[in-house]
Automatic annotation (TrEMBL):
This is D-malate dehydrogenase (decarboxylating). Gene3D superfamilies: Isopropylmalate Dehydrogenase. Its cofactor is Mg(2+); Mn(2+). It catalyses: (R)-malate + NAD(+) = pyruvate + CO2 + NADH. Belongs to the isocitrate and isopropylmalate dehydrogenases family. One of its GO terms (molecular function) is NAD binding. It comes from the Bacteria. Its EC number is 1.1.1.83. Residues 5-350 form the Isopropylmalate dehydrogenase-like domain. InterPro entries: ICDH/IPMDH (IPR050501), IsoCit/isopropylmalate_DH_CS (IPR019818), IsoPropMal-DH-like_dom (IPR024084), TTC_DH (IPR011829). Keywords: Manganese, Metal-binding, NAD, Oxidoreductase.
Length: 358
């Protein structure tokens, strides 16, 4: 019997709504499977907490989170708290503090009709982004000078370390090997303009491709990558990108899948020195929050990624099958997918299907 301790941070807006559905699915699985149990501890950190306490999370928040097997996060950010505070003081603090240097984001089409591109089959859209997650453009290095004056200067410096860049690329090559799809890694660069950071990035990529000679490689500038993702998505397998480029391109990728309501993600510390954190790609969507309109599939898929990471791929597979089956009844889906179902109803249906497929 495996009893997992999971820290739950629903966060803000639709983060709270979709989290309920993710937990519902995990509880359904543990009810059906006596070998696995979850102990959830909820943390009400986020923007509301900030407005009450002047901070996004407890000062000893990381210390508190250390003892868990994994962290599940909904989304953070809400009008009234500047986005750079909500993001940096909670999300990035955990990603960086727990050295979750891999951000894994699968882009996989589940039903052809959800793809906005014409004539695409489900197998045409099946790639995984390996995004560097602790440094790069989001390192938080910079400052203002002569703030508020007409001579003001703002600086934001990217940080690329050899250690992390090498590990991220290695992870991507290993993943390409294990996926056995196209045996290919695509590197996203912009070394024509970013003549230090991205020249360095390209150099490390070349070094690693010389080691993994059985894996094909290609390297495109980020602007061209965004074009190819639309023109020929079937040519991508594993894509390795810096923090900023990966962030931008995975929203584009989410659109290929049918929208942010499908986009799952994992912040991974591969060495398992710290807990990894599982969170969907989307934000707190304040304009639809509290109305039961949010699509919970991204969060449920994210829970599947947590199960995979904990070594329960069989249960993860069951979740995926149930999501795919739920997609057959379009009317019962949330409005982003053209249905009239609520967040809660979609979660309930997926749980029912999980129970039925046993
Ligand atoms: P967003 O992802 O919240 O929303 C973008 C668009 O997608 C909106 O039209 C929204 O309604 C829709 N959408 C997103 N998730 C959906 C779902 N599950 N079902 C149906 N529709 C969905 O991004 P936006 O608007 O840029 O940011 C809103 C807030 O979220 C900001 O405060 C931002 O800082 C924060 N944010 C937080 C993230 C996180 O916690 N990881 C990631 C991205 C944004
Ligand atoms: Mg993003």
């Amino acid at each position: 019997m495996k009893n997992y301790k999971i820290a739950v941070i629903p966060g803000d807006g639709i983060g709270i709504e979709v989290m309920n559905e993710g937990i519902k699915v995990l509880n359904t699985l543990s009810k059906l499977n006596k070998d696995i149990a979850f102990n959830f501890d909820w943390y009400d950190w986020g923007c509301e907490y900030y407005l009450k306490h002047g901070k996004m999370m407890d000062e000893d928040g990381l210390e508190k989170l250390k003892k868990y097997d994994a962290i599940l996060l909904g989304a953070v950010g809400f009008p009234g708290v500047p986005d750079h505070i909500s993001l940096r003081d909670l999300l990035l603090k955990i990603r960086q503090g727990f050295n979750q240097y891999i951000n894994l984001r699968p882009i996989k089409l589940l039903t052809a009709q959800d793809c906005p591109l014409k004539n695409k089959k489900v197998e045409d859209i099946d790639m995984v982004f390996v995004r560097e997650n602790t440094e790069g453009e989001y390192a938080g290095v910079g400052g203002f000078q002569r703030e508020g004056t007409k001579d003001e200067v703002a600086l934001q410096t990217s940080v690329f370390t050899r250690k992390t860049t090498e590990k991220v690329m290695e992870y991507a090559f290993q993943l390409a090997k294990s996926r056995k799809k196209l045996n290919k890694v695509t590197s996203v660069t912009k070394s024509n303009a970013l003549n230090y950071s991205m020249v360095f990035w390209d150099r490390i990529f070349k070094e690693k491709s010389n080691v993994y000679t059985d894996i094909k490689t290609e390297s495109f500038h980020v602007d061209a990558t965004s074009m190819y993702m639309l023109q020929r998505p079937e040519s991508f397998d594993v894509v390795v990108a810096s923090n900023l480029f990966g962030d931008i391109l995975t929203d584009l990728g989410a659109t290929l899948q049918g929208g942010l309501g499908f986009a799952a993600g994992a912040n991974i510390n591969p060495e398992r020195e710290y807990p990894s954190m599982f969170e969907p790609v989307h934000g707190s969507a304040p304009e639809i929050a509290g109305k039961g309109l949010a699509n919970p599939i991204a969060m449920i898929w994210t829970a599947k990624m947590m199960l995979d990471f904990l070594g329960h791929e069989d249960l993860g597979e069951r979740i995926m099958k149930s999501i795919v089956e739920a997609l057959n009844n379009r009317e019962k889906l949330t409005p982003d997918l053209g249905g009239s179902g609520t967040t809660n109803e979609v979660g309930d249906r997926i749980c029912k299907i999980i129970e039925n497929i046993g």
